[in-house]
Design goal:
Structural class: alpha/beta
Radius of gyration: 21 Å
Strand content: 15-25%
CATH superfamily of the largest domain: Glycogen Phosphorylase B
Order of helices and strands: EHEEHEEHHHEHEHEHHEHEHEHEEHHH
Distance between the termini: 17 Å
Number of strands: 13
CATH topology of the largest domain: Rossmann fold
Length: 378
């Protein structure tokens, strides 16, 4: 099989980018000839992966994105591929993986929390207007053979908004490395990290993992922890501007209990050191961090706007909030999880649920879909 993947750029802290890289590596290891088209890709391409850099401007954002959409379409037509899969909103693909969710839905949820003037600026922003145009055109293109979504939430969002045959939408959840992310590391790597960070063994460590603090709901995590009023500390892992949140933590009386670790290339040791993941996200198709935390034996507190909530049961693997602003729900969940027995019980349930989502399963389902497309079954 000879397959091309499209993604605008590589960000080692972006879930969709890491998914693309990992999938390319695992398919290449199985003998698939993989070509990767991107404007910037800093990760090692690996043996059997051919990297094609697509030139063009990167600024302003509208020009960078529009030029990539049209230039990458021209580039992939220069070679013959069995399949072209875009993990980006572009216009020349056989398969589209909607790993970023539905842009129209994200803008809708974002606008709810904006003033009237900011909502207007969002509506007239040419970057968003062009992205919405591309999204509709690609999803309603009759030549598109398959759409891959990573959660039932995104599937329903697509069916609600676009004219597309439901039979062309396939749900393939994210995969997780079940050995790298495992509760067994708590007694070794995790314990060492806690000692080094000065976190007492009996104090609960709450993790927040994600870049883009506003969208991921860091403000609500801070407010929920303050409202819980329990002996716990919050470790924030990810890329983003911290100034506002440092001040907010101080205003909430959390000074000294919140630590910003910045972006980390390897988050596994932090899961091993943590006790619970709080991710009150405004919108997330299916964040890999939720699966990584569950595989590591951590209960998860997240929102109904997170695709990972679709594989959880409220009160079993963690807690699901109707809205990210429900800081009372965050606080109540943290108070329940402050009990070690409850936390361990939910952590075991989280690990058991995560075991159904190995990378081997994800790659196998993707290959099975590719085979059906190549043999004309779809």
């Amino acid at each position: 099989m000879k397959i091309a993947f499209i993604r605008y750029k590589y960000d080692p802290f972006g879930g969709a980018e890491r998914f693309t890289q990992t999938l390319a590596e695992r398919l290449s290891a199985r003998g698939v000839e993989v070509h990767l088209y991107a404007r910037r890709w800093s990760a090692a391409s690996g043996e059997g992966i051919v990297l094609h850099r697509v030139g063009g401007p990167s600024w302003p954002a509208i020009l960078g994105y529009a030029s990539f959409v049209f230039l990458v379409g021209r580039a992939v037509r220069r070679e013959r591929f069995d399949l072209v899969q875009s993990n980006e909103r572009t216009l020349r693909q056989d398969v589209y993986r909607a790993g970023d969710g539905v842009h129209a839905r994200w803008l809708e949820l974002r606008a709810r929390r904006m003033s009237g003037l900011r909502r207007l600026s969002l509506r007239v922003n040419p970057f968003h207007a062009f992205r919405l145009w591309v999204e509709r055109r690609l999803l309603e293109d009759p030549r598109l053979r398959a759409v891959i979504v990573n959660s039932e939430m995104v599937r329903e969002e697509i069916l609600t908004r676009f004219r597309i045959d439901p039979a062309r939408i396939f749900t393939v959840p994210n995969g997780v490395d079940l050995q790298r992310f495992h509760p067994v590391h708590r007694e070794t790597v995790g314990a060492d990290l806690r000692r080094g960070a000065g976190a007492p063994g009996g104090e609960m460590v709450v993790l927040f993992v994600g870049s883009g603090f506003e969208r991921k709901g860091l403000e609500f995590a801070l407010r929920g922890l303050a409202e819980a009023d329990i002996p716990a500390r919050l470790w924030v892992v990810g890329k983003g501007k911290t100034g506002h949140y440092v001040k907010l933590a101080r205003d909430l009386g959390l000074a000294g209990r919140v630590r910003f670790w910045g972006p980390r290339g390897d988050v596994a040791p932090l899961y091993a050191a943590g006790d619970v993941l709080v991710l009150p996200t405004l919108y997330d198709p299916f964040p890999s961090v939720a699966l990584e935390a569950m595989a590591s034996g951590l209960p998860v507190i997240t929102t109904a706007q997170c695709g990972a909530a679709g594989i959880m049961t409220h009160g079993r693997e963690g807690f699901i909030l109707a809205e990210p602003e429900e800081t009372r729900g965050i606080a109540e969940g943290l108070r329940i999880l402050a009990d070690g027995d409850a936390r361990r019980r939910m952590g075991r349930a989280a690990r058991a649920r995560a075991e159904a989502f190995s990378w081997e399963r994800t790659v196998g389902e993707m290959e099975a879909l590719y085979d059906r497309l190549l043999w004309g079954e779809l």
